[in-house]
# Entry
Amino acid sequence: MNAAGRVVVVGGGVIGAACAHFLAETGWTVEVIDQGRFGHGCSHGNCGLIVPSHVLPLAEPGAVRAAIQAMFQKNAPFTIRPRFDPSLWTWLGRFALRCNARDMREAGRARQNLLQSSRKLWDELVVGQRLDCEWEHRGLLFVYHSHTAMEAYGHVDQLLRDEFNVAAEHWDGDELVQHEPALKVGLAGAWYYPQEAHLRPDRLLSSWRQRLEDRGVQIREYCQFKGFLHKGSRAQAIVTNQGEITAHAFVVATGALTPRLNRDLGCRIPIQPGKGYSVTMPRPARCPTTPMIFPETRVAVTPMQSGYRLGSTMELAGYDETLNRNRLQLLRDGARPYLHEPYCDPVEEEWFGWRPMTFDGVPVIDRCPQMENVVIAAGHNMEGVAMSPATGKLVAELLNNSSPHIPPGPYRVTRFRWPW
Ligand SMILES: Cc1cc2nc3c(=O)[nH]c(=O)nc-3n(C[C@H](O)[C@H](O)[C@H](O)COP(=O)(O)OP(=O)(O)OC[C@H]3O[C@@H](n4cnc5c(N)ncnc54)[C@H](O)[C@@H]3O)c2cc1C
# Structure
């Protein structure tokens, strides 16, 4: 423990919660502010999958062709809403340049360090903090209808084995239904990743909030960050709609909304909101026991103890706040070919969230270049829950000037050079 001082974390999502936890643990007096309710941003209704095997970023060889094809396909799970928005087109351009084997591997290593460290930390946190979040460690299935698509994944499996030491088990259709009778007979099979875990994200955030408050962390809701007051290279206070708040250090964990703070931060964080949807229902009578992803329709299924969730789709549509019924229907349609009971009434919640997407698939976890006592932790793409503990730990290490538990280089903000 060091006598650290006072820190304000801006953003009460899973990343802000993890930062608050590790900062409080190392002696900081912590306040978390959120412009809305704590835990009600993208961290609320996501699929809750803890996925150490998801090391590869979206920017991979062939991704540009797939994205262009998807643009001309009605109701594709991945869509780009064309519009005049230079930040979107620059982002897409930089994404396209990263779609090669070398950059994919480089991002994979950076992502793996966060994912693996977080996987271990999750085990410790759930037990140590008594997080009531329906935590289960049952692995994850990639289920395929078509034999061709299933075998085509073999080259990804080989790459993950050879270069990242991540191995999946190959199950044929008969083995699959033996393990998971909720699935229909006649599917091609599945790749099974035994290390994965899952939780219920809304329960996680409300339980984590309780534990943080128990240890003295203050949480202030409906408090919007509006700018910094700084002297030289140090921020002294933040201006909010509830007045000024002074502190010795600040963490910016504002997820997909971070680019709105670019001017205040004095640097450009290239994040696009990647809109995704989920539907939460009661558990069907024939509920799967293992979480699963159907790569052919890109739908994920999370069987939680108190419910059942279908989630997915990716829409680069800017900060669009509409709940598009066609996108929600895609989730149901995408689960139907695989499961005996793909959904169950009554629907408890229909939800969308903006994933904080960087073009390289790697988050920013770094000091703000112009203010040495401000750390940015944002851009966790499709894996913010899975990467959150290691992110929080690294943020605390940066502010404590202690040696980082994983190499911090890949998460530097300076990797984004102009034009942004
Ligand atoms: C359909 C879907 C499924 C997903 N499934 C998974 C999964 O299975 N596993 C996984 O790991 N990840 C998953 N994700 C991704 C994951 O949800 C995100 O990566 C993660 O929630 C990002 O967390 P965050 O804390 O950065 O952002 P958020 O949870 O959005 O939190 C940011 C907070 O900052 C606040 N804020 C913003 N601006 C200001 C301001 N100016 N002042 C004050 N407060 C501000 C916001 O109100 C918000 O509460 C999924 C996402 C979607 C959409």
User: Anything to note?
Assistant: The longest strand covers residues 271-281.
